[in-house]
Write a structure and sequence with these properties.
The protein is mainly alpha-helical and 255 residues long. The longest helix is centred in the middle third of the chain and has 20 residues. It is elongated, with a radius of gyration of 21 Å. It holds the Pfam family His_Phos_2.
Length: 255
Amino acid sequence: MRFFDQCTRFVETVDKNQSALAEVDKFIASAFMRRVQEKLADRLLVPYSNITSDMAEASFYLCAYEFAIKTINSPWCQLLDEEDALVLEYANDLKQFWKRGYGQDINSKSSCILFHDVFSRLDRVASEIRSGSNVTEAVTIQVGHAETLLPLLTLLGFFKDSMPLTSSNYVNQAQRAFRTSRMLPYAANLVLVLYDCNGELRLQAMLNERPIEFPGLAVHQGVQGAPLYQDVREHYKELLQGCNFEKECHLFPSK
């Protein structure tokens, strides 16, 4: 479940490469972030030069952690307003976009090994159902981290906006789908349920216990949120026929 640690191309070109987060660095240096720092300094009655972007981000995360864990309105939250929180949220989304999401192709391709594992299990169950055999593996539970889940969600095409997140389009991305605070909260989970509907096999995807629609399949399905399994496989045919972990993760992949 830590496939990314074994993906050389991801480790060398993204994880260890600061330039991969160039858009994040630009946004941190933007007028939006400077204004957050200045407002924080004003509330603390200290010179602007005393407050760094790291301090502003730390205040935001301490506020978020204490609210999430203790359900209290932390004193750290008093240092920020909603506008500040939105800016700091975007800074984090930018980082995840470029380091784990759509920003780099290898981010999602590093999860090829998990993608194939998931579909091999689904295929085995589908074959057993069609043959009338008993299902030998009714439930499979695999545990990882947000860094495990986000690349797979990206590979599957979920939460992809029409325009990439950049340092210069913060205002235009106010209604973005790629919002990690909603996609990957504490105990985030992706569930794929294979249904036998009177001989028709359908696949339901749920993220954090809520149904989500497979990208590109919503308008073609007969049952809301649960397209035919064969349609799902057809939709991801190129990945199922390719997406080779060893090939994708080689530092200098062959064409």
